[in-house]
Amino acid sequence: MATDSWALAVDKQEATTDSFGSLVIRSLPRGGGDAAPNKAKKGTTKQVENGTNVEGEEKEDKAAQSLLNKMIHTSLVNTTNQVEVLQRDPNSPLYSVKTFEELRLKDKLLKGVYDMGFNRPSKIQENALPMMLAEPVYYPSGSRPQNLIAQSQSGTGKTAAFVLAMLSHVDPTNKWAQCLCIAPTYELALQTGKVIEQMGKFYPEVKLAYAIRGNKLDRGAKLQEQIVIGTPGTVLDWCSKLKIINPKKISVFVLDEADVMIATQGHQDQSIRIQRMLPKECQMLLFSATFEDSVWKFAERVVPDPNIIKLKREEETLDTIKQYYVLCSDKEEKFTALCNIYGAITIAQAMIFCHTRRTAGWLAAELTKEGHVVALLSGEMTVEQRATIIERFREGKEKVLVTTNVCSRGIDVEQVSVVINFDLPMDKDGNADNETYLHRIGRTGRFGKRGLAVNMIDSKHSMNILNQIEEHFNKKINKLDTDDLDEIEKISN
Ligand SMILES: Nc1ncnc2c1ncn2[C@@H]1O[C@H](COP(=O)(O)OP(=O)(O)OP(=O)(O)O)[C@@H](O)[C@H]1O
User: Fold this and answer.
1) What is the 157 CA–ligand 1 centroid distance (Å)?
2) Whole-angstrom Cα distance, residue 275 to residue 271?
């Protein structure tokens, strides 16, 4: 896999509100077409809906469950073994009865997958990949692809799933753009690009282009790269004004963080304009960890005949992330509580979310005075600065990242063991922003790792927001006394 990297810029990320759902894996009844993928769909639907297990594995799963419980109480930092155990627990979003071989991937891709250290697919990968890889379904009016709208918890392998699907669909002998993936921010586009590069490492014929502001190409310059990842504004320019991509030749269209793309007016307009230029046979894939009610409806309207993978509300939060709140009277006390937490437990890396740039700046300075190596990331920075900060954090050069909402979505840093909501996420009306909460805490607990999320409460209003979050996810968030070091130590055991 080769890349053309250019210098870049970004589109803004916005948070959305509210979500709902019950777990459904809905495959539309199809006339004719490929029987194999439909078979696969049926099997997986039953397994997920009934929560039943594959015959003969029940005992093994019970043992796995008890082992899992033990592990949950032993260490904050996870091991590969634990991932394997979770992949055998039918209640885990990482559960899978399949292997990557069964997904009949090209050898070059299978090699790439194993090279990334993936042993088995996760639940979303197991369910979504057969649909995404299936042949188009034949209708008398013409063949139609298997479109998909999919929800799965943060860090459960959605990106890896659609990247694999794109790489599988590409015809490397054709030197034009065939797969188009749009992400809401520059950082996410870059990160997804890296996953494409990594997974396609043994498939060098397939090339990738970044459609991000700052990548200057001349009008009419024909793109040779088969996969394009970018932000909506630039992708739209490349498809329409600049005619760099011929949208009629796109066969796979992916919207990552689909809910924010749909709920943010500017992104929605641009995404829809792009979508309208695509041919009827183009496969549409929409992914996110959260979908607000109205966004689901909108998505179902714009995506023809979608297959749907949806979570029940109570499944949206990951059990591997422990959630607490701490009562304080003001920001100074919140800072003391934070220092106490740091004093009591070993934190690999932490992300701390603040409501304003001002608080984030103040907190970063205070933490630095205390001797922490801190990075500060906020929206007013240039995209290049932001990318550099995230890269340094990912490499572990800084152990603490203080940020506003810029980073709440999608950023994948394996070592984040603690997320602190120094300020709770709220929408512009001062109500709980449940989606942002879920995305923020999802920066820890990546792919089966254990994580800790601590919410700082300093007013009736913030307590109220916490209660709304508890109610929304139907999950109790326990109080933590940060003056009691023994108690803090306990939560990491
Ligand atoms: N099958 C797998 N086996 C092991 N690790 C995996 C597997 N699939 C993905 N991962 C790893 O798990 C982490 C999370 O995966 P990914 O970023 O695809 O999740 P996501 O659902 O897209 O997350 P988010 O909701 O935050 O965007 C990544 O570090 C990825 O490399």
Assistant:
1) 3
2) 6
User: Which residue's CA is minimally distant from atom 1 of ligand 1?
Assistant: 121
Distance CA 190, CA 390 (A): 11
Tokens of 446: 């990546």
What is the best residue among 82, 153, 154, 159 to mutate for testing ligand 1's pocket, by most ligand atoms within 8 Å of CB?
159
Tokens in use for 286? 């929409």
- Ligand 1 atom having least distance to the Cα of 195: 31
Half-sphere exposure of 236 (CA within 13 A, CB side): 16
Q: For the whole model, what pTM was predicted? A: 0.79
Which pLDDT band holds residue 54 (cuts at 50, 70, 90)?
Answer: very low
Tokens at residue 408, please?
Answer: 């709440």
Label residue 410 by pLDDT band (50, 70, 90): confident
Residue 277 has pLDDT above 70, yes or no: yes
pLDDT greater than 60 at residue 29: no
Check pocket membership of 165 for ligand 1, CB cut-off 6 A. no
289 lines ligand 1 (CB under 6 A): yes
How far, in Å, from the CA of 11 to the mean position of ligand 1?
Answer: 23
User: Which pLDDT score is estimated for 437?
Assistant: 95
